[in-house]
Design a protein that fits this description.
mainly alpha; Muramoyl-pentapeptide Carboxypeptidase, domain 1; 7 helices; single chain; 6% strand; two-stranded antiparallel sheet
Length: 154
Amino acid sequence: MKKVLIIIAVMFFSIYMFGCKKKQVAMEEQQEPMSMEALSTMNATVPTTLETKVPESKVQATPVASGVGAAKLEALPPAGPYKPTNIEIQTALKNAGLYAGEVDGKVGPKTKKAIEEFQKANGLKADGKVGPKTWALLSSHLNPPAESQTKKKR
């Protein structure tokens, strides 16, 4: 009876250690966020459904962490909306004239206050979080205006 309990305990432990959750976390760690430059160069006519046929020339076999080959579809767009980095958010807020702090990638009280001010000024819900609607408007301030660049060159 003790052997059966030990075997069951070992099985539960191994399932816990080698479960699907760890594989999912490992796969998410391998994915990198896309930059604004990469998004801007994407073709606007990329299909949005998986039912669209992908030409054989666009399918490549690539090894996966488990050693099993899988097909990588280059023609498919990234899943979900673009999530900006904290540095991109701070840079856009600074260029919009709402953030005077250091662009360090840390979202603190100054950054949250600047986000809320931007949201209020643009008629959005002022929650201090940069969601898709806020980023759609804020991303236009990511690059500094042409005037400030020409003044720096002089």
